[in-house]
# Entry
Amino acid sequence: MSNDRNDRFSDGNNDEGRHHEAAIAAAWREAVDSDPGEAPPASLDAHILAAARAAVQPAPRRPRYAVPLALAATLVIAVGLGLQQRSTSLPPPDAAVVGRAVDTVDAEGPGEAAGQVAADMAPAGVPDSPTPASRVTAASRLRAESKADETPPTDAAAGASRAEPARESMSLPAPPAAPAASEVEAHDAVDAMSLPEGTRLRAPAVPALPTPEAALEAIRAVLARGERAEAAALVRAFQQRYPQFPLPPDLAPLSFAPAR
Amino acid sequence: MTDASDESLMIAYAAGDPAAFEVLHARHRGPLFRYLKRQLRDGALAEDLYQDVWMRVINARDRYVSSARFTTWLYTIAHNRVMDHFRAARLREAGRLGLAVDDDDAGEGLHDIADPSTPPPDQLLEREQLVRRVVAAVEALPGPQREAFVLQQEGGLALAEIAQATGVNAETAKSRLRYAFARLRRDLGGRP
# Structure
């Protein structure tokens, strides 16, 4: 603090004037020094210093394995949920069904066995419709397959495939189950889990979450409108949602602004 | 580092040294807060703007140039924030802050006050009362005079720096400061 009084007072050059000014300045200094309320709160200073440090620290780099790890975790959760739903909504297959499936595998191969097990494990409420389609010839079956490749499967077609006797399956190509499974969503996991491999892993469409950067931009927009309290609430919500994401310096003060 | 100038500390902070900012902050935290408190007359509001001013310093670190004195720069930011506040809130003080000094004080006789460097004869109570009266008298000054007084006493700013920080010419700053002292002498002339 400079003491160059001459630089400050044009009219205080006389000794009396300087004396009075010095007296007032000393009284003022004593007043503010003796009042603890004349200093900012220590907590406020701590926040400012933390923000100052954060501002000059390099932004944390996202590790390379973050994305693959997130994808793997998502896949594990999706499969786990599917298995969980299956185990809670379906009764366990009885021994006769399993035995027949094993026999079918022995006779026809894994593709046919999967279709047969799917038919046997269908819920009791699903109407079996032994239509004439189950008695069609190989030629008509081939025509039906070519049509099924172009159009979504119907319940009748599925019922027909479920009602197919094993001995007919032995002499005919497997029903086209893949197109049906491609449209299955997670809430149909029961049916999906009974379909051939490679056709049941489609997850439901999940709305994309906003990125932290997008959320911060939205908060800045609120702040720019002068809605400081609203922006502070959004910052707190942001911190709860992204606790590891550092707040930028321009928004950091809002994190400890008093809720109003 | 504690002996370094404010300007070199600010440059060091802009270059990535957070310790430099800590020294800078420690030097100016009290004076800046008191300046804001005197101008706003509201402790909670002063805390808000105090924090805001420091955040602006942090965010503007890359734009700081060493040719400008740090203290002048700091109080220019603070002055602008105070003015922004009054404008936004549309308080009546906004007009007073922008007006010329109160010319009614010109030419009034100056009165002696007790010299605080020499303690009153034997009564500490009298000293405490004087301290309270000094604070009250400063807070009773018109806005521009009060600002000039606090910038000088707390910020250690010279006349030219007060003028720069408050956006007026040097003569206006000088007048404000002179009238401030004159009024304080008048108000504190009598014994408590």
Observations:
- Residues 92 and 161 of chain B are 26 Å apart (CA to CA).
